[in-house]
Automatic annotation (TrEMBL):
The keyword Membrane applies. Residues 1-11 have a biased composition (Polar residues). Keywords: Membrane, Transmembrane, Transmembrane helix. This is Peptidase. Residues 82-142 form the PepSY domain. It comes from Streptomyces phaeoluteigriseus. Residues 1-24, 257-279 are annotated as: Disordered. Residues 15-24 have a biased composition (Pro residues). It comes from the Bacteria. The keyword DNA-binding does not apply.
Length: 464
């Protein structure tokens, strides 16, 4: 005896439910994951969309920067480079304002030297004025505001700040931390849902409407998921709240990033180092001997020379190459004698410190250069498409209604206690370390429970 297939309210035939199989822990969890994926996707997607678009632009800004600022960054190759002291003097003659805080010698034959100044009017406290000097002629090619350890110039700095905090300062950083906190949850839920579906429902070819959109959304999401997990994890390492917890954990494990000691430049540092110091970066024996001492310790280009912070401190010369292979060695040099007082090698960094360094550099597109940047742009584009397809599915689910049809409630009630209790404990731990995941999730659960209780009581009254 056959029965007619069930239909929806508008008369559309509804596919027959698959034959029931053995119920494992995933069966009661699936509706819960589906509901969380749906609402997290709808509510967090605008933040992710901003992060994806600005991340796409930031990855492309490395190459754009070379074109926009070619005059300042590059020079014709000459025969012999001038002493570093003469290059710094040329920069100071053109820009006597402020104080020299660092010098980045020309890292390659056709590149300029950068002399970085702080305390310049109109330049932010966390930024520097970079004066670009031709290392062969001493000609000042220009001056631009610079930000960060990668030497971002105005174009990349603007995009970077918008990506990080919407240019709203510390409060604006909450947006990017919220996006990073939820990206891995949404991606992980999507992957679990995709592989739990019947194989026939995962096909894209020959389908149309919402099913085709779902197929595209799922296929691209699965392929890009590993990249999203990586972006989420590395983005959290320097976020405001989760980043602080990660730093505390690394410190407690003895895995924090070490620094070369610049304290105590020598017994004569307090006298000789002060001689000739007029905010020009020249202390004691002078910057040329300092650079020579660092070269003798094996510090090849690119390097940054940081003058002593006070009369009791040493020069710090550190490598600043973030691309592969990473060069992050550093030395401290006594300004009075030109002798190296401390050496720090990247190979001596703790494992987690190295992984953090590589993770951040991969996230920002510098570890593998152009290939790295193209991969980031592809991930950002994939995220934009997934968000657009997700909203389209929401629209198609509601058949054109204003907000689409929501996922039914009741998922929590279907989860057995032996699964629900450990799950809630894991969520509580995650919520502590990732507050911008835990707090919104707790609010969502509370609202969901309250609305569910209201709906339940209304249903009971209606049935009386």
């Amino acid at each position: 005896m056959s029965t007619a297939p069930s239909t929806t309210k508008d008369g559309t035939p509804q596919p027959a439910a698959p034959a029931p199989g053995p119920r494992g822990p995933w069966a009661p969890l699936r509706p819960l994951v589906l509901r969380l994926h749906f609402y997290a996707g709808v509510l967090v997607a605008p933040f992710l969309l901003v992060a994806a678009v600005t991340g796409f632009l930031y990855a492309g800004a490395f190459q754009a920067e070379k074109l926009v600022y070619a005059h300042e960054m590059t020079v014709p190759v000459g025969d012999v480079e001038l002493p570093m002291s003469e290059q710094v003097a040329a920069a100071r003659k053109a820009h006597p304002e402020g104080t020299v805080t660092a010098v980045r010698p020309s890292p390659q034959e056709d590149a300029t030297t950068r002399v970085l100044l702080s305390g310049v009017e109109g330049v932010g406290a966390t930024h520097s004025l970079a004066v670009f000097v031709d290392p062969y002629t001493g000609e000042v090619r220009g001056a631009l505001e610079q930000y960060g350890s990668t030497g971002a110039l105005p174009l990349r700095t603007w995009i970077d700040e918008f990506h990080r905090d919407l240019r709203l300062g510390e409060n604006g950083r909450l947006y990017s931390e919220l996006a990073a906190s939820w990206l891995w949850v949404i991606a992980g839920g999507g992957v679990a849902l995709w592989f739990s579906r019947r194989r026939a429902l995962r096909k894209v070819r020959g389908t149309g409407g919402r099913r085709r959109t779902l197929g595209l959304h799922g296929t691209v999401g699965v392929w890009a998921a590993a990249g999203f997990f990586f972006l989420s994890a590395t983005g959290l390492t320097w976020s405001q709240y989760a980043g602080a917890h990660i730093d505390e954990l690394r410190t407690s494990l003895g895995q924090s990033t070490p620094a070369v000691s610049a304290a105590g430049g020598g017994e004569h540092a307090g006298h000789d180092a002060a001689a000739g110091d007029g905010g020009d970066g020249e202390h004691g024996v002078g910057i040329d001997r300092i650079l020579a001492a660092a070269r003798a310790e094996g510090l090849g280009d690119p390097v940054e020379i940081v003058p002593p912070a006070d009369t009791e401190s040493a020069y710090v010369v550190r490598q600043v190459q973030r691309s592969w292979p990473t060069k992050q060695d550093a030395v401290a040099v006594d300004p009075a004698t030109g002798e190296v007082t401390d050496v720090l090698r990247f190979e001596e960094f703790p494992v987690l410190a190295k992984l953090t360094r590589w993770g951040i550099d991969l996230h920002t597109g510098v570890l593998f250069g152009l290939v790295n940047q193209i991969a980031l742009m592809a991930l950002a584009l994939a995220l934009v498409l997934l968000i657009l397809w997700g909203y389209r599915m929401w629209w198609q689910r509601g058949r054109g209604s204003a907000f689409g049809r929501p996922i039914p409630r009741g998922a929590w009630a279907q989860v057995p206690p032996y699964v629900l209790v450990p799950l809630m404990a894991a969520i509580a731990v995650l919520g502590y370390f990732l507050p911008l995941l835990g707090i919104p999730l707790a609010v969502f659960l509370a609202v969901d429970v309250v609305l569910g209780e209201i709906a339940y009581r209304r249903g009971r009254r209606a049935s009386v």
